[in-house]
Amino acid sequence: MHVLVVEDDAVLADGLSRVLSGHGMAVEVLGNGTQADLVLQRSEQTEVVVLDIGLPGMDGFEVVRRLRARGSQVPVLLLTARDAIEDRVRGLELGADDYLVKPFATAELVARLKALVRRNTPKPALLALGDLSLDLAAKRARVGDKTVELSVREWAVLEYLLQHGARVVSKQQIIDAILPWGDDLTLNAVEVYISRLRLKIADAGVTIRTIRGFGYMLEQTPPAS
Ligand code: CA
């Protein structure tokens, strides 16, 4: 996940860069609005922007305004001052997607950036493996031609596993991916959803394998010989 951080407070920018990198994000830091505008015109890599408002060169409002005027959909999270309600309103009206009031908890920033990128990622219409299929538009799960009833959380876990194909995902990744920001869920709860899903998709020719110490992955069951 490529993040562009535009913040002229060098200490804050440096801290953000370290925290976001620590979460596996590729971070580019700029301290100037004019530079940010140029980089955003050229870069197609940027998946989300963290944007301060008061910046040398061009202010954050103008950066967002120009970005949207060019038709870009890249999500923008504004950093605003505590008492500046007008700034938040103006930023959102200009096309920013979210904001955080300084000072903020970095965990909240990370969660919100992930949510913004997730919302902006186009989803395929159908995810399938073996006889298991999820119709994402109709929100229908099927094993063969039989519909399977899933709870909202079970659906979210299964969708996440299917999105990752044959890659191993950890319980924490599942939690981060399926929860709206602010909700809480234990690792044990993930185990419960996984065991329910195993029962429900038992006939699909697909197994949710436990990779001890790492997490889970979906695997097609070899046909019985
Ligand atoms: Ca500033």
Automatic annotation (TrEMBL):
4-aspartylphosphate modified-residue sites: 52
InterPro entries in the cross-refs: CheY-like_superfamily, OmpR/PhoB-type_DNA-bd, Sig_transdc_resp-reg_C-effctor, Sig_transdc_resp-reg_receiver, WalR-like, WH-like_DNA-bd_sf
All residue ranges annotated as the Response regulatory domain in the record: 2-117
- Write out the entry's keywords from A to Z: DNA-binding, Phosphoprotein, Transcription, Transcription regulation
Q: Which Pfam families match?
A: Response_reg (PF00072), Trans_reg_C (PF00486)
Q: Which residues form the OmpR/PhoB-type domain?
A: 124-220
Q: Which residues bind DNA?
A: 124-220
Query: Cross-referenced PANTHER family, in alphabetical order?
Result: REGULATOR OF RPOS, TRANSCRIPTIONAL REGULATORY PROTEIN TCTD
Task: State the name under which the record lists this protein.
Answer: Response regulator transcription factor
The upper taxonomy is:
Bacteria, Pseudomonadati, Pseudomonadota, Betaproteobacteria, Burkholderiales
